[in-house]
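Internal tracking record. Fields below are filled automatically when a chain is submitted to the structure queue. Please do not edit lines marked as system-generated. If the sequence contains nonstandard residues, flag them in the REMARKS field before resubmitting.
Queue: standard
Priority: normal
Entity type: single polypeptide chain
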Amino acid sequence: MEFLSTMEELAIERGEKRGAKEAHIQDIIDLLQKRFNSVPETLIIALNNIEDLAQLKQLLLETISVNSVVEFEELIKDSSHQEN
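SYSTEM-GENERATED OUTPUT FOLLOWS
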């Protein structure tokens, strides 16, 4: 059995979080693309600026109930204002 150093464990954890973040973002983009046929670049940039995995998961769930991309963009703005 191989033991990992603390630094190796931290690197693995960071990689897992980065992978989860990227997966959530891609899922959001894919669902919005499917529902509304286009996703503005500004929305993709805004999603990439979100670091909180819980917020991304919540936004992912919201993709099924929003009525437009504009409404989804408002959710991002509202959630980012709540964090500040």
